[in-house]
Amino acid sequence: MTELTDSLPDRPLSTSEISALEAQHDDYGFAPVGFFPDLDVVAAFVVIINGDHGYSLGYNRDGDGWVVVESFEDGEDFAGVTDRLQEWMGDDWEEFEQAAVEPE
């Protein structure tokens, strides 16, 4: 997972960037969880690798960038994983500026 997190920019992703990630990795499935459509911001997502195991990732705005919030086996409760990721993310993204997610 380090390879994926290291390749992510130091900002939340846009929806087109999530789509590009999915196109690059045939064995990865991506599910945006922290999606703010008005800003076109994806601040958290779940990735399942080879259908075997997965990770929830979130953008930590306190300077850590993208972090692995949780790892899980594919058979685990997906709704529980997304609920915990949304809880980790919080709801204070309303003041986030669009300029912070524009690709450089």
Q: Any overview of this molecule?
A:
- The chain has a four-stranded antiparallel β-sheet, sandwiched between helices.
- Helices cover 27% and strands 34% of the residues.
- The radius of gyration is 13 Å and the shape is globular.
- A hairpin with a 3-residue loop joins strand 2 and strand 3.
- With 104 residues, it is α+β, with helices and mostly antiparallel strands.
- The longest helix has 12 residues, at 78-89.
- The model has no long low-confidence stretch (mean pLDDT 83).
Task: Offer a few descriptive terms.
104 residues, alpha+beta, 4-stranded antiparallel sheet, 4 strands, globular
Mean pLDDT: 83
**Helix share of residues?**
25-40%
Strand portion: 25-35%
- Identify low-pLDDT runs: none
Please write the string of helix (H) and strand (E) elements: HHEEEEH
Shape: globular
**Main sheet, how many strands, which sense, barrel?**
4 strands, antiparallel
Query: How does the helix and strand content classify structurally?
Result: alpha+beta
Counting H and I runs of at least 4 residues, what is the number of helices?
3
Q: Give the tally of β-strands.
A: 4
| Terminal CA distance | 24 Å
Spatial arrangement of strands, main beta sheet: 1-2-3-4
Query: How large, in whole angstroms, is the Cα Rg?
Result: 13 Å
